[in-house]
Design brief:
Blueprint (H helix, E strand, L loop, with lengths): L5 H24 L10 H15 L14 H39 L5 E4 L4 E4 H16 L2 H15 L9 H10 L1 H30 L5 H20 L3 H24 L2
Antiparallel strand pairs: 1-2
Helix pairs in contact: 1-2, 1-3, 3-4, 3-7, 3-9, 5-9, 6-9, 7-8
């Protein structure tokens, strides 16, 4: 006859539930995995599958009844940790979309926008293009697997049930500064060239006032921008790969900051 106690049942449940909440928080905001085009059932199934694999590696879990106030607090804590880690990687793709906004503004394509189901708002065409390129590179370098590996390592740095240190949120805010810096660096080659062309057209307009700059400026800016995109996009893989590596390191720093290390 098989006999087990209530504490053993709680232990089996907690071994799966607490990692599941942290993984679900990551999947809700992580790039590629958390896209709105992916059905919710598929996201939940993927999170459960990952939790089953991660549970033996996550270490001992606190023996707290899941339906108690302490259990609900731990569940909320794990969801917040996972969302912070997912937001850390999401900022990389937001930076690429911001670079597309900068480039489109200089090329005269700022008006060319359409509804993006991933963001739920109107997005510039070049922003969507750069975002797709970044996602393809992310998948090509196995970034999704490295992101999950970084999440698994956080269970060693920040065990389930440990108190959170507010310094971790400061690390996340510091990392968010890369949203502007990296977005501008990615767009800088095209912005410089297109700004030079606009300055040249401005000087031309002052010297030859009979020439309509508005008639010739847009085709020149658009053609030059497309040529520069064809040159710069193949070279952006190294920049984005380094950016992804910095994102993995930022995930570890956030976990260490939350752990008070």
């Amino acid at each position: 006859m098989i006999d087990f106690q209530l504490d053993q049942l709680y232990g089996w449940m907690n071994a799966l539930l607490w990692p599941l909440f942290r993984i679900a928080g990551l999947v809700s905001l992580a790039p590629v995995l958390g896209e709105s085009s992916i059905p919710m059932r598929l996201k939940v199934g993927f999170a459960v599958l990952c939790a089953i694999v991660v549970a033996p590696l996550a270490g001992p879990m606190p023996s707290v009844p899941p339906a108690s106030y302490a259990g609900l607090l731990i569940a909320l804590q794990q969801v917040v940790i996972g969302m912070a880690l997912g937001l850390c990687m999401r900022l990389i793709f937001t930076a690429t979309m911001m670079a597309g906004e900068f480039i489109g503004l200089q090329m005269g394509l700022a008006f060319a926008s359409f509804f993006d189901p991933a963001t739920g708002a109107n997005t510039a065409v070049l922003s969507r293009l750069l975002n797709l390129v970044a996602m393809l590179i992310f998948l090509a370098v196995n970034g999704h697997l490295l992101m999950l590996d970084g999440l698994i390592r956080t269970f060693t740095i920040l065990p389930v049930g440990a108190s959170l240190n507010p310094n971790g949120w400061g690390v996340l805010l510091d990392w968010s500064a890369q949203l502007w810096i990296s977005g501008m660096l990615l767009a800088l080659p095209l912005v410089i060239v297109l700004l030079t062309i606009n300055l040249a057209l401005g000087i031309l307009n002052r010297t030859a006032q009979q020439l309509s700059v508005f008639a010739v400026g847009f085709p020149i800016s658009l053609t030059t921008g497309l040529i520069m995109l064809a040159i710069v996009l193949p070279q952006s893989s190294d920049f984005l790969t380094r950016f992804f590596e910095e994102g993995y390191q930022a995930m570890a720093r956030i976990a260490q900051g939350l752990a008070g290390q």
